[in-house]
Amino acid sequence: MLCLLSLNSTTDVQNPTRRKQSQQKRQISIPTEPLSLSLMPLTSPKWLQCPSLSFTIPTSLFQYPRNSSTFLCNYCFKNKEQTQSWNGLKVIRGKKLLKDLTTWGIGGVCNYFVEVFDQTQLLSAIRYCHVNSIPYIIIGKGSNCLFDDLGFDGCLILNRIEFLERIDPGVYRVGSGFRFNQLGVLSCNEGFTGLEFSGGVPGTVGGATYMNAGANGQETASTIESIDIVTTEGAFQTLHRVDLSFGYRSSPFQDMKDLAAITAVTFRLQGSGSARKRQQELLKRRRITQPLGERSAGSVFRNPSSLGVSAAELIDKTGLKGFSIGGAMVSHIHANFFVNIGGSTSQDMLNLIAFVKDKVDKKFGIELEEEVLYFHPYCNLMNKER
């Protein structure tokens, strides 16, 4: 784009007469209704001046925002914050950087951004996306995911369903957007065991359930009684744990085609006088063995099943601790944590993941499986393309 602008600027300086003529040709009437570029009048000039910029650019680089009477170039259109309303929901178009919403601090601009605070708002946002064929992704605290620097050409729905209800002693019904580690601290402080491992774990209750998060011999699924979901058809359902099959870092929701989102989870925990002490011990150990103060997404790879060895051990034995590509680095503290040491691009992180996988495969004949989810710019959660 800079080359195009530079060439046009040079041409105008060298040909003042041509510049005057081109300016006269640019005086066209702006339509009052949204108009596709493919339907622009054949007499329209090849160059227009963006209202937000002081120079002209090709019409092929312009967009015509809905509910606006002004053409904007692609750059300004992508970076101009516009507020819309979807069935009463405030939606921001452009400007919202994905890197500000993720623990890795990586990602470009998303086309639409909306926050939802209850299941009704969530369903409203999902329905709007379906009706208007807008791809969407739902995230919580932004851990365990990698967005592309090119952004996301769809709607990012930020889950802020953060309520907590005490139904009975040790029984908690919690919104899927509630911080998972906060629930663990709260339950242990109240004398209930089962979620000691959650201390220091980033992410939400919904994310922990979806991935069946776990550590130190504990996992999320073992503490769940029921799960509330909303389907792509807009139906609310309550599923009971006894009817669901969970596995290592896996849940039935990962393959549920009609799942739109998890909205709430009910946990049933057992009383324990040592839960708080146990959690403090695990958190102290985690602070020593994991880079909690750095920008990471948690474990990058799943531990190989039934091999009795962790992904971190395999990576460490290849001598890759501290190895970096661009701004992405294998942590010195924990080999299965990749950190953004400053300015990492999505391609840096993808290259590092691919490089580590290749090295481990060549040395041990084991192909590591990613635990972190990568969302490319045109992925579509409606079609489960992740």
TrEMBL record:
Assigned keywords, A-Z: Cell cycle, Cell division, Cell shape, Cell wall biogenesis/degradation, Cytoplasm, FAD, Flavoprotein, NADP, Oxidoreductase, Peptidoglycan synthesis
InterPro entries (UniProt xref): FAD-bd_PCMH, FAD-bd_PCMH-like_sf, FAD-bd_PCMH_sub1, FAD-bd_PCMH_sub2, MurB, MurB_C, MurB_C_sf, Oxid_FAD_bind_N
Higher taxonomy: Eukaryota, Viridiplantae, Streptophyta, Embryophyta, Tracheophyta
Gene Ontology MF terms in the entry: FAD binding; UDP-N-acetylmuramate dehydrogenase activity
Pathway participation: Cell wall biogenesis; peptidoglycan biosynthesis
Protein name: UDP-N-acetylmuramate dehydrogenase
Compartment annotation: Cytoplasm
EC number annotated for this UniProt entry: 1.3.1.98
Residue ranges occupied by any FAD-binding PCMH-type domain in the UniProt entry: 106-272
Catalytic activity: UDP-N-acetyl-alpha-D-muramate + NADP(+) = UDP-N-acetyl-3-O-(1-carboxyvinyl)-alpha-D-glucosamine + NADPH + H(+)
